[in-house]
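I am still learning, so can you show me any protein sequence you like together with the matching structure tokens, please?
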Amino acid sequence: VTTVKRSSLLADAVFVIAELALSSPTLVMTPTIEANPSARVCIQFQPAMDPERRRFFVLVEGGDFDAFDDALADDYTVAEPTVLAEQDGVRMYRLGLSEDVIAVTPTVTELGGMVLEMYSTGGLWLVKLQVPDRDALAAFREFCLDSGIEYQLERLYRTEPTRSDDHGLTDRQRRTLLTAAREGY
């Protein structure tokens, strides 16, 4: 396990970071990414998701957009695919989730973590998670196995607490910033 420094107002917090490869026919967009392994699909996360609408956004780059759109139209894991923008070989889509799809983000959130990054490569989803501890990661692994999701741990590390002098702040400046953050500034 390696450590990395983390710059944030959570200076004393330590998190487990896991990089995983996930695959399952019931994961979102699996039929589309398997049919278009040269396209890179990156799920764009939002601060809040309307649980009733189950919509999300993806950026797609590389590959053949006509073939990608054909696969997306036949993909049973998504609904209402809409191209929102296209520029310089990159497209942004808005997609709805079908009822049969497994969404991993709510489970990660329930375990006290968050998905930092999720993108496709070679027909798989590569996911970078931040969780509070190894127990949460083990619970996520159990969720994956119970849901029929193939789970491969690629890399595991933890953040290292930072010290106020790492940022050139005095103790007073650090306390002021922490107080401001707690008060919503």
